[in-house]
Amino acid sequence: MAPLSLIRLTTEYSIEEDRLCLRGEDETGRKIVIWLTARMLRVLTPRLTAWLERQTANQPLADVRQTMAQEAAVAGHAAQPPVTAALDGNAFLARSIDIVTADDAMRLVFKADDGAAETTETTRAAEIPFLAAELRQWLAIVMAASDTAGWPADIWPDWMREARRPAQAAPRLNLH
């Protein structure tokens, strides 16, 4: 069976599972839950950020450009209602992820690869297409979830950490 092609995605940290929970939905409304471990995230994240970094390679102030692009992507992220998929329904642990890239887009294919026989009722793989700005938005969400989990932050490049710094608050005036 072909992977479920997702058009919406909700990503959050599950304390009970100590994993990221990706709830996705395709254009027909079919839903799926993908579990992503910290170990898998440590392998995946450097590959995704390296793809983004190649877009500004050999340009002056590449890190500054990356930080600005990250800030712009996050600022342009419009809130949507979350995908609500049942955890006991069509769900799997991502054991492998294929990364298919082009110059301006990428596709992640999450696979169960657990040797279980596939049925017509259960999807064991899902793909998520990303443009660069969408990938930046999703990575910001994943980074925040990773922070919530207390997972090591050394997988995130400096330009992403710089982009998430909160803006300086206005100085507080004390009136007497």
**What is the count of β-strands?**
7
Class per helix and strand makeup: alpha/beta
Which of globular, elongated, flat, extended, rod-shaped describes the shape?
globular
Q: How much strand?
A: 25-35%
Low-confidence stretches: 167-171
Span of the ends, CA to CA: 71 Å
Q: Encode the helix/strand succession as letters.
A: EEEHHEEEEHH
Keywords, please?
alpha/beta; 176 residues; seven-stranded mixed sheet; globular; 4 helices; 31% helix
Verbal overview:
The chain contains four helices and seven strands. A hairpin with a 4-residue loop joins strand 1 (4-14) and strand 2 (19-26). It starts with a strand and ends in a 13-residue tail after the last helix. With 176 residues, it is of the alpha/beta class. A seven-stranded mixed sheet has the order 4-3-2-1-7-6-5. The protein is globular, with a radius of gyration of 18 Å. The model is unreliable at 167-171 (pLDDT under 50).
Write the layout of secondary structure elements.
Layout: E1 4-14, E2 19-26, E3 31-36, H1 38-54, H2 62-75, E4 91-93, E5 96-101, E6 105-111, E7 125-131, H3 132-149, H4 158-163
Parallel strand pairs: 1-7, 3-4
Antiparallel strand pairs: 1-2, 2-3, 5-6, 6-7
Helix pairs in contact: 1-3, 2-3
In short:
This protein is an alpha/beta fold and 176 residues long.
